[in-house]
C-alpha cells in the first residue's frame, strides 16, 4: 500500500469513528468553546492629564483548555465617542490572552487575563498611537444557566507612549 493510500485510509477511519461517536450521543457535548459580548466604557488618558471616555464594545471568543485555564481572542472597538471639546478619543484593540481562573463556588469564578495585544488609539490631544503592548485584567464570572454566564472585569488595554487605555466591562457569555 502506498503512503498516500495509507494516509487516506487512516483519515477515513478517523472520520468514520468520530461520526459514529457523535451519533450515539443524545445530548450535545460541551466542547469548551465560548463567546462573550461586553459593554466597556474606556478611559483614555494622556500624560498631560486629559481624559476621554469613549464607550466601547468587546467581543471575545475563547476555548477552555483545562478547568483552570482558557485561551481567548479579543476585539474591542469604540461604538460612541466622548465628544469632549478639548480631548476626544477612540480605540480599536485586538489580541490574544490566557485566562487563568479559580472556582469560588459551583457557579462563580475569579479570573485574570494576560496577553499580547495591538491597539490603535486616536486622540485629539495626543494624536494617533498604534502599537503592541501587554494587556491584563481580572474579573468575576457567574453562571446564570449551564450555558449562559455574566461577567464583570477590569482591563488595561494599552499603557505606552504617553497614553493609557483601561476600563471596566460588563459581559454576557454563552458556552457552546
Topology:
Elements: H1 3-24, E1 33-46, E2 51-52, E3 55-66, E4 69-80, E5 89-103, E6 108-123, E7 127-143, E8 148-160, E9 163-175
Antiparallel strand pairs: 1-2, 1-3, 1-9, 3-4, 4-5, 5-6, 6-7, 7-8, 8-9
Describe it.
The chain has one domain (31-175): Porin (Beta Barrel), CATH 2.40.160. The chain is built from 1 helix and 9 strands. It has an 8-stranded antiparallel β-barrel. The model is unreliable at 17-28 (pLDDT under 50). A hairpin with a 2-residue loop joins strand 3 (55-66) and strand 4. Helix content is 12%, strand content 65%. The two termini are 41 Å apart. By secondary structure, it is mainly beta. One of its GO terms (cellular component) is cell outer membrane. Residues 1-22 form the signal peptide. It holds the Pfam family OMP_b-brl.
| Mean model confidence by pLDDT | 85
Intertermini distance: 41 Å
Unreliable stretches: 17-28
CATH class category: Mainly Beta
Alpha-carbon Rg, integer: 21 Å
Largest beta sheet: strand ordering: 1-3-4-5-6-7-8-9
Q: Write the CATH fold name.
A: Porin
Total strand count, please?
9
Helix content: 10-25%
Count of separate DSSP helical elements: 1
The gross shape turns out to be elongated
Domain Outer membrane protein beta-barrel: 10-176
Protein name: Outer membrane protein beta-barrel domain-containing protein
Keywords: Signal
Signal peptide: 1-22
Amino acid at each position: 500500500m502506498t503512503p498516500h493510500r495509507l494516509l487516506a485510509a487512516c483519515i477515513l477511519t478517523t472520520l468514520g469513528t468520530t461520526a459514529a461517536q457523535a451519533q450515539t450521543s443524545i445530548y450535545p457535548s460541551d466542547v469548551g468553546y465560548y463567546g462573550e459580548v461586553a459593554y466597556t466604557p474606556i478611559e483614555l488618558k494622556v500624560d498631560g492629564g486629559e481624559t476621554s471616555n469613549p464607550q466601547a464594545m468587546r467581543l471575545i471568543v475563547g476555548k477552555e483548555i483545562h478547568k483552570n485555564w482558557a485561551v481567548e481572542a479579543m476585539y474591542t472597538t469604540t461604538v460612541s465617542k466622548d465628544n469632549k471639546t478639548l480631548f476626544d478619543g477612540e480605540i480599536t484593540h485586538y489580541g490574544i490572552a490566557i485566562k487563568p481562573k479559580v472556582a469560588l463556588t459551583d457557579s462563580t469564578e475569579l479570573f485574570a487575563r494576560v496577553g499580547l495585544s495591538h491597539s490603535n488609539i486616536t486622540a485629539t490631544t495626543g494624536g494617533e498611537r498604534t502599537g503592541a503592548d501587554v494587556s491584563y485584567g481580572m474579573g468575576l464570572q457567574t453562571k446564570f444557566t449551564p450555558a449562559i454566564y455574566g461577567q464583570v472585569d477590569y482591563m488595561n488595554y494599552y499603557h505606552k507612549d504617553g497614553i493609557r487605555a483601561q476600563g471596566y466591562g460588563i459581559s454576557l457569555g454563552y458556552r457552546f
